[in-house]
Amino acid sequence: MSDIETRIKVAELKEEKINGLLTQLDQIMTSTENNLKCYSCMNMFSDPQVLSPCGHAFCKKCVASVDSCPQCDKKFKEKAPVKLISDLVTKYVY
Predict the structure, then answer these.
(1) Sheet with strand 57-59: strands edge to edge
(2) What is the pLDDT of residue 54?
(3) What is the pTM of this model?
(4) Are 39 and 69 contacting, i.e. CB atoms less than 8 angstroms apart?
């Protein structure tokens, strides 16, 4: 093999590895996006609230007029804002 052929082969192998990493990154981004979506409206969380005691999270407006969790149907006692989820959504959308 000539030097040029060797360099081409190395470049092709690097390209394959980069393409594999890009595919993996795309899968991670899709999974992350799905985890930042409200179960009720299926949009990215807007003013996320976590329900107690079940721990499921929803947009504030999606649980404003309900008394049981839309995901597991358990009655909840409290709703609390979740700054961590809100920050993640903001960073993800940015």
Answers:
(1) 57-59, 48-52, 78-81
(2) 94
(3) 0.67
(4) no
